[in-house]
């Protein structure tokens, strides 16, 4: 057995030997190791009334330590096949780093089969629950707030990509993984799928995991992970924040329903396709959230939308890195509109070959079909966090 040492900023991760039944538990870390009893007490024995989130790898509870510190307790599901690996990924990825736009890890618990991470509790939930959620939210997302959220996420992602070594590819940037504190400062969370890459590595190949609607096609189809995979996901998120709509939201105005008739397979890329359509027609401002008030800067909002389209380009090398993204968002760098082309959408490239499920007459290269395929692949899979092995054609020249 071995255990992962936590890497610090500008240091490589190392491995040290460990005793049996304590495999992969980080050594030499300066974060706190909590007992299960402490965390059970803090969460009222993991009471359902304290549950604030649930994902593919477990549940999250709010709690309070004896010293009064508010915490978020992420309990890894024991049924999760990849649970321990995801737990260790998250622990290694975030233990030695610190940034205003990343969640802060307080500590962890490893007792028997229990794997628990302890974070600072963020009062205002996630963007998915507040800005994009169907439930009523008391938070007022005016334009200034949205600008600050977009820039905060971009800076946090830039830090992961360029501020640490090995650099970190998050692999699951999405609205539900952006948490908001009391002041609505965004914090990137959930590093369970993160990959650590040395500076000289351009990419790694891995099993596909992430969320439909946010996955870059080259990653979804070939399992090729690069920083540009995160850039693509950020681009989708940027469009969602400006429009106030989810990329998979099919509730369109009557005049836009033709999109769903013409492209019935685009169930997880509607917003992306609609933004491109408006851009081509020269009416990009139509996609901006109509609920925004008098502080809306239409020109700035359109700038953000163009950056979102650049981030989701078909060809990976045409997507800007996060440093360039920040420069364009802040106006420090101009946007070359000639470089904006139709965004990449998974179903444009998909050539699924199904074996046990296949009927030659009804093969459909659609995200609806993909969801069905993934649901049969593993009990962990859904439209939220997904993984699959698929084949494609005609994408090798798109790097």
TrEMBL record:
Instruction: List residues of the Protein kinase domain.
Output: 46-305
Source species, domain of life: Eukaryota
* The keyword Iron belongs to this UniProt entry's keyword annotation: no
Q: Which GO terms describe its molecular function?
A: ATP binding; protein serine/threonine kinase activity
UniProt region (Disordered), positions on chain: 380-399
> Family assignment?
Belongs to the protein kinase superfamily.
Q: Which UniProt keywords apply?
A: ATP-binding, Kinase, Nucleotide-binding, Serine/threonine-protein kinase, Transferase
Q: Which Gene3D superfamilies match?
A: Phosphorylase Kinase, domain 1 (3.30.200.20), Transferase(Phosphotransferase) domain 1 (1.10.510.10)
Q: Which InterPro entries match?
A: CR_Ser/Thr_kinase, Kinase-like_dom_sf, Prot_kinase_dom, Protein_kinase_ATP_BS, Ser-Thr/Tyr_kinase_cat_dom, Ser/Thr_kinase_AS
Give the protein name, as stated in the record: Protein kinase domain-containing protein
Binding-site list for ATP: 74
Q: Which PANTHER family match?
A: CYSTEINE-RICH RECEPTOR-LIKE PROTEIN KINASE 3
Asked if the Swiss-Prot or TrEMBL record annotates the protein with the keyword Zinc, the reply is: no
């Amino acid at each position: 057995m071995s255990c992962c040492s936590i890497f610090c900023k500008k240091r490589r991760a190392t491995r040290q030997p460990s005793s049996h039944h304590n495999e992969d538990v980080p050594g030499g870390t300066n974060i706190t190791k909590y007992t299960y009893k402490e965390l059970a007490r803090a969460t009222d024995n993991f009471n359902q009334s304290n549950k604030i989130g649930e994902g593919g790898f477990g549940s999250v509870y709010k709690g309070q330590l004896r010293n009064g510190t508010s915490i978020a307790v992420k309990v890894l599901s024991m049924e999760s096949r990849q649970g321990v690996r995801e737990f260790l990924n998250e622990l290694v990825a975030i233990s030695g780093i610190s940034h205003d736009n990343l969640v802060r890890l307080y500590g962890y618990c490893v007792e028997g089969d229990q794997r628990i991470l302890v974070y600072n509790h963020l009062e205002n939930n996630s963007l998915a629950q507040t800005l994009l959620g169907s439930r009523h939210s008391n938070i007022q997302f005016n334009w200034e707030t949205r600008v600050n959220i977009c820039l905060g996420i971009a800076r946090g992602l830039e830090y992961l990509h360029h501020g640490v070594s090995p650099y970190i590819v998050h692999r699951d940037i999405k609205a539900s993984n952006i948490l908001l504190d009391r002041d609505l400062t965004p914090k990137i969370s959930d590093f369970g799928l993160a990959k650590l890459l040395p500076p000289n590595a351009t990419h790694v190949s891995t099993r596909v995991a992430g969320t439909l609607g946010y996955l870059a096609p080259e990653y979804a189809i070939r399992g090729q992970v690069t920083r540009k995979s995160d850039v693509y996901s950020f681009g989708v998120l940027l469009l969602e924040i400006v429009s106030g709509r989810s990329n998979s939201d099919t509730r369109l105005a009557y005049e836009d329903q033709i999109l769903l008739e013409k492209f019935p397979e685009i169930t997880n890329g509607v917003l992306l396709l609609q933004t491109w359509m408006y851009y081509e027609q020269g009416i990009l401002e139509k996609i901006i959230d109509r609920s925004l008030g008098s502080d809306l800067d239409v020109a700035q909002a359109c700038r953000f939308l163009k950056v979102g389209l650049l981030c989701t380009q078909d060809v990976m090398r045409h997507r800007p890195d996060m440093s360039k993204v920040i420069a364009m968002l802040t106006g420090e760098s101009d946007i070359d509109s000639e470089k904006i082309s139709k965004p990449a959408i998974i179903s444009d490239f998909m050539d699924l070959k199904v074996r046990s499920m296949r009927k030659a007459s009804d093969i459909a290269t659609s995200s609806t079909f993909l969801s069905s395929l993934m649901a049969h692949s593993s009990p962990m899979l859904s439209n939220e966090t997904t993984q699959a092995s698929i084949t494609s054609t005609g994408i090798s020249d798109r790097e």
